[in-house]
Specification:
The structure holds 2 protein chains of 2 kinds.
Chain A: H1 10-16, H2 27-36, H3 41-69, H4 76-101, H5 109-125, H6 130-153, H7 159-178, E1 183-184, H8 188-195, E2 197-198, E3 201-202, H9 203-221, H10 223-233, H11 235-240, H12 245-271, E4 273-274, H13 282-292, H14 304-323, H15 328-350
Antiparallel strand pairs in A: 1-4, 2-3
Helix pairs in contact in A: 1-10, 3-14, 4-9, 4-10, 4-12, 4-13, 4-14, 5-6, 5-7, 5-12, 6-7, 6-12, 8-12, 9-10, 10-12, 13-14, 13-15, 14-15
Chain B: H1 2-22, E1 39-46, H2 50-66, E2 69-75, H3 81-93, E3 98-101, H4 110-118, E4 123-126, H5 132-138, E5 144-147, H6 150-164, E6 169-175, H7 181-195, E7 200-207, H8 212-225, E8 231-234, H9 237-249, E9 257-262, H10 265-273, E10 278-281, H11 284-299, E11 307-309, E12 313-315
The chains are: A mainly alpha, B alpha/beta.
Chain lengths: 354, 316
Amino acid sequence: MSKPDQPATRDDASDRAKPRGASAGGAQPAVTRSGNAAGSRWPRLFAHSARQLGTFGGLIGLGLVLWILTPHFLTVSNLLNIAQQTSINAIIAVGLTFVIINGGIDLSVGSIVAFSGVVMASLLERAVPVPIAVLAGLGAGSLCGLINGVLISFGRLPPFIATLGMMSVARGGALLYSDGRPISGFGEGFRWLATGEVAWIPVPILLMIAVYVVAHFVLRRTPFGRYVFAIGGNEEAALLSGVPVRRYKTLVYGASGLLSGLAAVVLTARLNSAQPIAGISYELDAIAATVIGGTSLMGGQGSVVGTLIGALIMGVLRNGLNLLGVSSFVQQLVIGAVIILAVLMDMTFKRPKR
Amino acid sequence: MKIPSVSLLLATCVLVFSGCNRGDPAAVGTGAGVAGQPTVALVVKTLNNPFFIEMQRGAEEAAKKAGVNLIVQAADREVDVERQMQIIENLIERKVDALCIAPSGSREIVPVIVKANRANIPVLIVDTRADEQALAAAGGKIATFIGSDNFDGGRLAGAFIVEKLGGKGNVAVLEGIAGHETGDARLRGFKEAVAKAPGIKVVASQPANWERDQGYNVFQNILQANPSIDALFACNDLMALGAVEAIGAAGKSGKILVVGFDAQPEARAAIQKGTMAATVAQFPARMGAIAVENAARLLRGETIETFSPVSIELIK
């Protein structure tokens, strides 16, 4: 089914996820694997959507419980409220989903949010037109991401190290650039990005939906997406199949930086302020959403739809626990427990089948 | 198989935790609370700082007396303005009757105050002022501010150091997070007081972000660069206590005059021991209590003052 001399397709890629570390002859076990994974793509597709259905069921179940416990949960305004609160984490998590499927990790997203935010805000402060300032913010984010990518693919640094370094560099850059002070007070035109509505739907929600539609399409329907899976599943095999591994790895981190920049736009407009200390530990929230959504930290497997559901589960949990007046300490505990249990279940249900 | 499990898991989690919280006497007025009583929410910066734990205690006692249900919530970290905003948005959705807020960011709090205004929920600001210009620009309204004058506190600390040093010496400052109104006001007050004594030189002024471990490290570095420091003013006690450890490690215990801010129990003990010279006392429990009392009065239709000062004093 899968031939080593052809670029890997998505399904091949997820097959290759397992026999990691198989070097030169890496394609060999991959072929065997597709053989006993049931021969046709249907069971696998089913398994994949079953995981997503499971997560989605979790979200619905959670919603039902909250609906029973509090009358304030299931109202249109609260649901819009949750979607808005989720949007920032959800946008960052798309970038992380790409990075993690690709077999890497990006710890720098929170710092990049702060850096892009202050770069954009300083331009807005100098009365630069909104679109240009926003583009500069997105550019600053992409640049940080691309530097990550170059360090990882051309400098051969482990992603953990490269992005850990960038986490500190971007944070320091943000503090230095802004002199440690928040930059605040922007015009209505810019604030519209957080406060505006189109057809009664707040703009951040629309941005989030747009990002997910594009990301889903890119991941499932373009060569770029197939390569992301292929590299994450088995980098060696992808390389041997002629995938331009370095270029695509660089681009993946660039995309993650770009999305952090977009999150910074929404965050800055929402708070009407850009803080150099913004976004601390956002990387952990985004990783959590990605993992709850079923993306494997081993690479080669995952979906953006799962990530959206994961981010929504976190948003709904936080919102619901606030509505119920549950103490902040318990909230942290619950979210941690959900992350652990979601992945634990994934593992236990996957293992016997394979 | 998988589908029901994940759902069940989440459902159980929420049930278990909301359930166990109901029985928890520490969580005043969570869930439904006492029916018929109005619900007041107090959102502080964080609940892992003794200052806000004291504020919570004062608020809880006042809530019992005033016959209101009280919800106390906070973000995990003091700097997390976005999370604080989310919490307040959620409380607005829950339709609490009044909101008492200790803002994590003076300007960043403004958009959510406007949201509360739109939902007709009165907002009482505690401890840290909301930026007045930003508030006016956004058309936001608050019912009252309850807090100490941090500028005065900083001035008290500065005057004390000037007096103790006899008007001559090298002084270091540990600042809070840059751009925070509370820390900025303390710093302005302090600088005004020391400016009156030309013999006093501020040789280093660095942020340690309100945190104890950063207070330790930053002051250790300051000491490396300026071994001849005579006095330190830290904008809160946590940083001062961290610096005290650094001073001890450098073998200079008791040789540097350390003045903190907040008068936390640990700082009071350090003053007794002689490792700290003084601290500026605020009364967070009183702030919490006044906030809840004022909220209750407001809900009964009474008018309240737009500023309730809470006294401030130097403990030495």
